[in-house]
């Protein structure tokens, strides 16, 4: 569910500098259902050790909702090949994508350039493209709600926190809680007495500060299906509010033709 292609372009310029341009106010950009990430080829004597090129973790919420962007990092590499400083030269517009790139590069090891046979420090410019691929509709997602209208649920979420919600939902369904950090997305379908799916819980990024619990209630008439959505966020109300426009677009696999967050004023 994620596709990252990373390329390294670097220059041995000791006087180079970079500024942090992380933006919290960028408007959402809805990713196409199929999008390939492109990178530029490496072109420098400063290269990286392939054995330590850790790939960024694409946040689960961003994958589900098609949040994408390009990040360019300027990294100071010491003669030892260790990374000692990272600046965001170009932000993706979403803090969680910038941070995912930074966390990955912190674990990289470079092979430095040499001057007169001696290893020297230098800067590596590293671009990342985060691009969501086409997602398969979850097996239990009701077929007549693939093109439903999304609205905010005005009812109070029955749990006080993301962690309480995950524990309660998984316990009621006798379902295991994913403990691996690789499990960025966890789905739970709630059925009625006739076996019909009436609610859906989606948990994302539970091992991070961006953890969210999303609650979908399938409502409306058959000819006008409606999904009521609410959310809990480990990052607090302000963080949840920043995701509202995305919640109203719906996940990629269930998105309808209503105006998207990208076209909102």
Key terms:
disordered N terminus, five-stranded antiparallel beta sheet, five-stranded mixed beta sheet, TolA/TonB C-terminal domain, 265 residues, disordered C terminus, 14 strands, alpha+beta, elongated
Q: What does this protein look like?
A:
The structure is a single chain. The chain has 265 residues and is of the alpha+beta class. 14% of the residues lie in helices and 31% in strands. The protein is elongated, with a radius of gyration of 21 Å. Residues 1-43 and 257-265 have low confidence and may be disordered. 33% of the residues are buried. The longest helix is centred in the middle third of the chain and has 11 residues, at 95-105. Strand 4 (69-77) and strand 5 (83-90) form a beta hairpin. Strands 1, 2, 4, 5 and 9 form a five-stranded antiparallel sheet that branches. A five-stranded mixed sheet has the order 10-14-13-12-11. Strands 3-6 form a two-stranded antiparallel ribbon. The protein starts with a strand and ends in an 18-residue tail after the last helix. It has five helices and 14 strands. It has helices at 60-65, 95-105, 162-172, 237-242, 244-247; strands spanning 3-6, 9-11, 47-48, 69-77, 83-90, 110-111, 114-115, 118-119, 122-131, 149-152, 185-191, 197-204, 212-221, 224-233. The chain folds into two domains: 3-131, TonB (TolA/TonB C-terminal domain), CATH 3.30.2420; 143-263, no CATH class.
């Amino acid at each position: 569910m994620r596709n990252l292609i990373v390329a390294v372009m670097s220059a041995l310029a000791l006087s180079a500098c970079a500024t942090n341009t992380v933006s919290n106010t960028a408007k959402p950009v809805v990713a196409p259902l199929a999008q390939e990430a492109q990178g530029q080829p490496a072109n420098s004597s400063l290269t990286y050790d392939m054995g330590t090129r850790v790939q960024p973790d694409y946040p689960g919420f961003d994958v589900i909702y098609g949040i994408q962007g390009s990040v360019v990092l300027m990294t100071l590499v010491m003669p030892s090949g260790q990374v000692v400083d990272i600046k965001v030269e170009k932000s993706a517009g979403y803090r969680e994508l910038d941070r995912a790139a930074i966390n990955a590069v912190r674990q990289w090891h470079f092979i430095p350039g040499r001057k007169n046979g001696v290893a020297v420090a230098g800067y590596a410019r590293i671009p990342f493209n985060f691009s969501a691929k086409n997602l398969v509709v979850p097996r239990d997602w009701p077929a007549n709600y693939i093109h439903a209208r999304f609205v905010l649920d005005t009812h109070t979420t029955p749990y006080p926190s993301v962690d309480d919600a995950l524990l309660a939902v998984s316990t009621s369904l006798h379902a295991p809680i994913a403990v691996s950090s690789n499990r960025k997305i966890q789905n739970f379908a709630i059925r009625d007495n006739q076996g019909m799916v009436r609610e859906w819980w989606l948990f994302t990024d539970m091992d991070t500060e961006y953890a969210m619990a999303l609650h979908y209630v399938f409502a409306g008439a058959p000819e006008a299906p409606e999904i009521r959505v609410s959310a809990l966020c480990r990052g607090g109300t302000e963080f949840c509010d920043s995701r509202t426009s995305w919640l109203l677009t719906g996940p990629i696999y269930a998105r309808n033709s209503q105006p998207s967050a990208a076209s909102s004023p």
